[in-house]
Specification:
- By secondary structure, this protein is an alpha/beta fold.
- The chain contains 17 helices and 15 strands.
- The strands form three sheets. Strands 11-12-10-9-8-7-6-5-13 form a nine-stranded mixed sheet, with helices on both faces. Strands 1-2-3-4 form a four-stranded mixed sheet.
């Protein structure tokens, strides 16, 4: 793809917009233009009061040109106004050229609710927030309403927590096998799985340090989230030992929420669920992704729908308070008929939480590494229909959308939404997604996020990315790095 810009334009942002219409586009200044090459030309100019933009989209002999102007304001930098004018001109030209208008408009970020949250915090009503999102970013009405409703719901939860509260994320980056769509830092070969005992011992040392750090800062731990990978990959004795150790260094009985993302049905056993219950876990995930065996096979998900139903029944009978199920929309071989049966069956099971993700093309996934274009070739209209149906049927069943985010290169630029029954929301998800809460993180690939002033100040501290790097790292140096960051951030 050829992108040509003239004037004060954010070319990288325009590239992300181009990807909404040409999902697998690559950008190179040296690329030779052929009859099949999409060529986008965007120009921006201005006078004292207004930014003017012109955008054209051409493939072969067909061209669509659109224009847009934006008036400058004292509250917005002039460069931002020029970028907005250029983006809207391109968006309208590409929508007409491709015959498709992305429902999230020119928003490409992963946290659309953050914009709504800021407007609500500034005193806007629901109607004003929806109108502003539609006008500024060209959102479809239903997306503007969704973002606003979720932001309003989140704001009620966030008010309960102060800058003195914090959470803990614990990374278990191992899986029994790797799903073809996955890009997480997770290890699934026999040799690498053999690292688990040593990894958990190193993890316990880091948890001990973080426990002391939280106490020294005078902070209160409110939620714990064990994620992965698949946290239930370790065998039963190792899993029990880890949860027992967490109990010994943190007061888990007083937590507002304690989550284990159990995940894969083929790793969930009655003994592991008993360990969760005995060690104060309040929330687990049992994730089918799809209830079609053929679709599961297409993505190398090495369990069946029967395995999921078995694991789900164990979870229901375990005595753990809340259960979440994850689904993915747009998987290879899936379509509206198949997916609608999946979501309908999940609602029949009546879990407290349902999280519906839209498939995203990740660079390090098996699909992308193998250049499997067919994996991401689902009809956007069908994917959008699945997303819309999920939101309709969950609402009719009494679920509330309570948090949302998006992933880069997701199908049709669509969203991931968590739905909950009233009062059963995943608190960690809200606090993490809106970046208004300090989250200490332990394990390979984990990122500590220090926040203050309700997210106005943020600093991140990164752990070594891979388990073997984590094990090789000088633990004392890693602790010094985190300690130095907290001292500097909190002015100690």
């Amino acid at each position: 793809m050829k992108l040509i810009t003239e004037g004060d334009i954010n070319a990288y942002y325009l590239q992300t917009l181009c990807m909404l219409f040409f999902p697998r586009a690559k950008f190179s200044k040296s690329e030779k233009i052929t009859a099949d090459t999409p060529v986008v030309i965007v120009k921006v100019s201005s006078d004292d009061n207004t930014a003017y933009a012109e955008a054209s989209v051409t493939v072969g002999n067909r061209t669509v040109i659109k224009y847009h102007s934006e008036d400058f304001s004292e509250s917005e930098p002039r460069q931002n106004t020029k970028s907005t004018a250029a983006s809207k001109a391109f968006f309208r030209a590409a929508s007409e050229f491709c015959g498709y208008t992305p429902p999230w408009g020119i928003l490409t970020g992963v946290r659309p609710t953050k914009l709504a949250f800021e407007k609500i915090a500034a005193g806007m009503t629901k109607e004003q927030t929806v109108k502003s999102l539609r006008s500024e970013y060209l959102l479809f009405p239903r997306k503007a309403i969704l973002a606003t409703d979720i932001a309003r719901y989140e704001s009620k939860i966030i008010k309960k927590y102060t800058d003195n509260d914090c959470s803990l994320y614990i990374s278990i980056p191992f899986c029994p096998t790797r799903c073809a769509y996955c890009s997480f830092i997770s290890y699934a070969t026999k040799k690498l799985l053999s690292m688990i005992p040593d990894y958990l011992e190193a993890l316990k040392k880091e948890l001990f340090f973080i426990s002391g750090l939280i106490k020294s800062l005078g902070m209160k731990l409110t939620t714990v989230y064990i994620g992965g990978g698949t946290p239930t990959t370790p065998d039963e004795p190792l899993f029990e030992d880890l949860l027992s150790y967490i109990d010994s260094v943190f007061d888990t009985a007083s937590l507002a929420e304690y989550t284990v993302e159990a995940g894969r049905a083929d790793t969930i056993t009655e003994a592991k669920l008993k360990s969760c219950r005995d060690h104060n876990v309040t929330r687990i995930s049992v994730n089918p992704q799809s209830l079609c065996d053929e679709v599961l096979k297409n993505v190398s998900r090495m369990h069946s729908t029967d395995d999921f139903f078995r694991a789900y029944e164990l979870a229901v009978n375990s005595g753990i308070r809340h259960i979440n199920t994850d689904l993915i929309i747009g998987l290879p071989g899936d379509n509206f008929d198949i997916y609608s049966k999946t979501i309908e069956k999940i609602i029949e099971l009546s879990p407290d939480n349902i999280t519906a993700h839209t498939l995203a093309a990740k660079k390090s996934s098996e699909f992308t590494s193998n250049n499997d274009v067919s994996a991401y070739s689902n009809d956007y209209a069908d994917v959008s229909k699945c997303v819309d149906y999920t939101q309709i049927i969950t609402k009719s069943a009494g679920y509330i959308p309570y948090y949302m985010y998006r992933q880069k290169n997701s199908a049709a630029n669509l969203e991931n939404v968590g739905f909950c029954k009233k009062g059963t929301e995943g608190i960690y998800n809200i606090l993490m997604m809106e970046e208004v809460h300090t989250i200490f993180a332990a394990g390979a690939g984990a990122v500590t996020k220090l926040t203050a002033d309700k997210g106005k100040r943020i600093e991140r501290v990164f752990n070594p990315k891979y388990p073997f790097e984590y094990l090789r790292a000088d633990r004392e140096e890693e602790y010094k790095k985190l300690l130095s960051a907290t001292d500097r951030f909190y002015g100690l």
